[in-house]
């Protein structure tokens, strides 16, 4: 445990602390979905650090302290988290949630995020999406798309844009945090062998009613051709 708070890792410090053997979050008993999600959310960014400290309306302080002191702080301090620490969190999620299999079964990351952010910590939804005239609030966006032959090794920018286009979605507002789940794959099938991380994400074309430049004349556009 590391009750003292540590900032997220940056640049050379991130490489020094996180690279090498016995680094990251130790996997155990189908925990990979949670290990990867927690590493992505906290190792090198402070965007969601409010989850660790803020007294939200429905906040479960026990779960919050386990997340902060047994997982996030050790990860940022030493670059390693024991499987027992994640299991402690999984046991609490099983107790607080409606599902009894959080300690042994593989879950969808979205199910884990909805449980810990909404039901346990009481965080407001991070995303507002619109499809047609319908709005929906959510905590993360999972990329759904058909196989496209011209995308061999895509980057995240391409996948997000094409997924929004195929699903006819728009962002109602600029999100404070944009959690994106890559396309699903199993042991028998992978949609892409590799996905290149986009270090920046341009959401100009994804925003609803956002002023944009006409690609023909350069003035403010009034029509959009999908």
UniProtKB/TrEMBL annotation:
Main localization of the protein described in the UniProt heading: cytoplasm
Taxonomic superkingdom: Eukaryota
Keyword hit for Hydrolase: yes
Gene Ontology terms: biological process: protein deubiquitination
Keywords from the named record: Cytoplasm, Hydrolase, Microtubule
A Pfam family recorded for this sequence: UCH
PROSITE patterns: USP_1 (PS00972)
Domain Peptidase C19 ubiquitin carboxyl-terminal hydrolase: 24-203
Record GO terms (molecular function): cysteine-type deubiquitinase activity
Coiled coil feature spans: none
Gene Ontology CC entries for this record: microtubule; spindle
Compartments reported by the entry: Cytoplasm, Cytoskeleton, Spindle
Keyword Chloroplast: no
Name of this protein: CYLD hydrolase
Upper classification of the organism: Eukaryota, Metazoa, Chordata, Craniata, Vertebrata
């Amino acid at each position: 445990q590391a009750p003292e708070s540590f900032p997220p890792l940056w640049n050379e410090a991130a490489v020094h602390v996180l690279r090498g053997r016995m680094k990251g979050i130790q996997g155990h008993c189908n925990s990979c979905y949670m290990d990867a999600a927690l590493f992505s959310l906290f190792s090198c960014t402070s965007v969601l650090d409010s989850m660790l400290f803020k007294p939200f309306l429905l906040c479960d302080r026990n779960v919050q302290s386990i997340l902060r002191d047994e997982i996030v702080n050790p990860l940022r301090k030493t670059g390693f988290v024991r499987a027992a620490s994640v299991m402690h969190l999984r046991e609490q999620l099983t107790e607080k949630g409606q599902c009894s299999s959080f300690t042994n079964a593989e879950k969808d990351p979205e199910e884990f995020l909805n449980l810990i952010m909404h039901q346990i910590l009481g965080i407001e939804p991070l995303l507002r999406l619109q499809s047609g005239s319908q709005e929906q609030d959510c905590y993360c966006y999972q990329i759904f798309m058909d196989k496209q032959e011209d995308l061999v090794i895509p980057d995240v920018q391409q996948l997000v844009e094409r997924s929004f286009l195929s699903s006819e979605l728009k962002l109602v507002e600029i999100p404070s945090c944009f959690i994106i789940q890559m396309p699903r794959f199993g042991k028998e099938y992978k949609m892409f062998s590799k996905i290149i991380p986009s270090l920046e994400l341009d959401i100009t074309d994804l925003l609803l009613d956002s002023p944009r430049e006409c690609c023909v004349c350069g003035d403010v556009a009034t029509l959009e051709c999908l």
